[in-house]
Amino acid sequence: MRLAEDALSGSHGPPPRSLTILEPMASQNVPAAQQSELVIVANTLPVRREEVDGELGWAQSPGGLVSALSPIVREAGGCWVGWTGGADDAPEPFRHEDILNVAVPVSEVEVAGSYQGMCNSTLWPLYHDAVRPPEYHRHWWNPYVAVNRRFAEEAARRTALGGRVWIQDYHLQLVPRMLRELRPDVSSGFFLHIPFPPIELFLRLPWRRAVLEGLLGADVIGFQTPAGAYNFTRLADRLIEAEPQGETIRYQGRDIRVGAFPISIDTDRYANAALSPEIRERAEQLQQLRRGRKIILSVDRLDYTKGIDLRLKAFLEWLGREDRSIRDAVMVQVAVPSRERISEYQILRRDVEELVGQINGEYGELGVVPVQYFRRNLPFEELIAFYLVADVMLVTPLCDGMNLVAKEYVATRLEDDGVLVLSEFAGAAAELPDALLVNPHDVNAMAATIEQAVTLDPEDGSRRMKAMREVVRRHSVHEWAAQFIEALV
Ligand code: GDG
Questions:
Q1: CA-nearest residue, atom 1 of ligand 1
Q2: Strands of the 254-260 sheet, one edge to the other
Q3: Rounded to the nearest whole angstrom, what is the distance from the C-alpha of residue 327 to the centroid of ligand 1?
C-alpha cells in the first residue's frame, strides 16, 4: 500500500495516517545472483559520456569521491545507482570497468522541480547558512519525493540479502527511510557532503519532519564535521524526540550511529602529480605570470557559498593600502561555471565579473593586470601547475561542507612552502588549524590576512605547511571511504 505523497510533505496536506510509505519488497525482479553486496546510491553515476576515437562511450567522471569509491565497489562486485545528468536519459544497466552502472531516469519536469528547485534552490542555500534566501515552493516537493522513491526502489532491487547500501548527499535524503521500508534486511548509511545547518535554520524547512525521518532510516549518518553531527542530533531530539545517547540516536527501537566522517582527497595522486615532469614544466611556464610579484590563487565553482565576491573586495582593499601596489601581487581566480540556469548563479557571475573589471580598470597598467580571471574548468594538469606556482592560496567560502581545494593545495606543496588562507567556515578548518584562518564576512580582516600571508616568515610558513601536509597524508579519501563502509556492518 502506498500513501498519498502528501503524507510525506510535513506541513502541507493531511498528517500521515501511518508511518509506512512503501511495502516491503518480498520478491525482487532482479535475480538474487545478480544482486550486489554493496550498492552506492548517488545523484550522478561515476561515469560520463565521452567521445573516444570518434565513438561515444563512457569514461570515469573526475573527482575524489568516484576515484575513492570505485576500487571498493569493484572489489565487492558492487553496483552504482545514479542519474546520467540528462533529462529522460536512462540507458540499460551497463558495466564499466567492472562496476555495474544502473541509471535512474529523471524527467525534464523532475529536473526542474527536484534538482534545480528543491535541491539547488531550497536545500543548498538553506544548508549553507542561508547565505542566499532559500526558496520554498510547494510544487518542488513532490518531484523530490518521486525522484527519491525511484532511487530507493532501484537500490532495493539491486541489493543482495543483508547487503550494504551507501547513499550520498542532500539530493537523496528520503532514500534511507524508503529503502528501510522496502528492504528491512539491508544496512544503509547516508553521508552528507554539505554542512548540516543549526536547528534554527533547519526548522524553516516546510518538509522538515519528512526530511529528518527520511534520514533516520539509515543505520549510520555521517557528516563532514562534529558540528554537523551535533546539529543533527539536537534537531532529532527536539523535533521528534529521538533519544541521543553519545554517538548514537535511539529511534523507533533502533540505534542509529551519528558521527563526523571528514572527507579527504586522493593525497598520493596530488603528491605524484606535483612530481610529474610535464606538470613541473608547465608550472615553470606559468612563472611568467609572476614578474616579481607574489601569486595569490583561488579556485572555486562559481557558487555564492564560496565567497568569491567578498574575497575580490578584500584584494581590492589590500591593493589600496598605502604600502602596496600591483607590483606586489597578482591574483588568479579560477571560477568553474556551475548551475548556470539558476538566477542566483547568474547574478553572482555578473557581480564577480563587475568586480574583476572594476579592480583591473582602477589599478591595471599597460601589461600589468592585478586580477587574472579564468571562467572555465582547467585540465587537471593545469590545475596542479597553478597550485605549484601559488605563493598564497585563498580559500574563503562563507560556508562549505569541507572544501577539497584547500587539501589539494596542501598535498602538492612537497617542499612545505606556500601559505594557505582558509575560512573558519569551511569544514576543512577543523582539521587544518595551522592555516591562516579568517572570517570571510570580514573584508578588513581578509585584507589584513592577505598582508600577513604575503609577508609570513618562511620558517613559520614551513612549520604550518608541514603540519597540514601530515594531516592530509595520514587521512586520504581512501581511509574515509573504508572507515564509513566498515561502520556499516
Ligand atoms: C562539495 C561540497 C565538499 C575545481 N576547479 C577545477 C577543478 N576543481 C575541483 C577541485 C575539487 C573540486 O573541484 C571542488 O571540490 P570542493 O570540495 O572544493 O567543492 P564542491 O564542488 O562544492 O563540493 C564541499 C565536497 O562536496 C566533497 O564532499 O568538500 O564542501 O560543497 O576537487 O580540484 N578540477 C579541475 N579543473 C578546475 O578548474 N580539473
A1: 193
A2: 94-96, 99-103, 79-83, 36-44, 159-168, 187-191, 220-223, 254-260, 248-251, 243-245
A3: 31
70 φ, ψ (degrees, to nearest 5)? -55, -50
The answer for residues whose C-beta is within 8 angstroms of residue 55's C-beta and 6 or more apart is none
Mean of the pLDDT values across residues 418-436? Answer: 98
Residue 174 DSSP code: T
Cell of 332: 588568479
- Three-state secondary-structure class, residue 274: helix
Q: In this structure, what are the phi and psi dihedrals at residue 82, rounded to the nearest 5 degrees?
A: -170, 180
Rounded to the nearest angstrom, the distance between the alpha carbon of 101 and the centre of ligand 1 is 23
Pocket probe for ligand 1: among 61, 403, 409, the residue whose CB has the most ligand atoms within 8 Å is 403
Cα(376) to ligand 1 centroid in Å equals: 13
DSSP element (H, E) containing 36 = strand 36-44
- Do 178 and 209 form a contact (C-beta atoms < 8 A)? no
Report whether pLDDT(90) > 70: yes
* CA 404 to ligand 1: nearest atom: 17
C-alpha of residue 64 to centroid of ligand 1, in Å: 9
Residue 377 CA: which ligand 1 atom is closest?
Answer: 38
Nearest atom in ligand 1 to the alpha carbon of residue 338 is: 21
Strands 254-260 and 248-251: antiparallel
Based on C-alpha coordinates, what's the Rg of the chain?
Answer: 23
pLDDT in tens, 129-169: 999 999 999 999 999 999 999 999 999 999 999 999 999 99
How many whole angstroms separate alpha carbon 323 and alpha carbon 310?
Answer: 22
**Number of helices (H) and strands (E), helices first, in the chain?**
17, 18
- CA torsion, points 135, 140, 146, 147, in degrees to nearest 10? -60
Phi, psi of 52 (to 5 degrees): -125, 125
Global pTM reads 0.94
Atom 26, ligand 1: residue with shortest CA distance:
193
| CB distance 49 to 89 below 8 Å | no
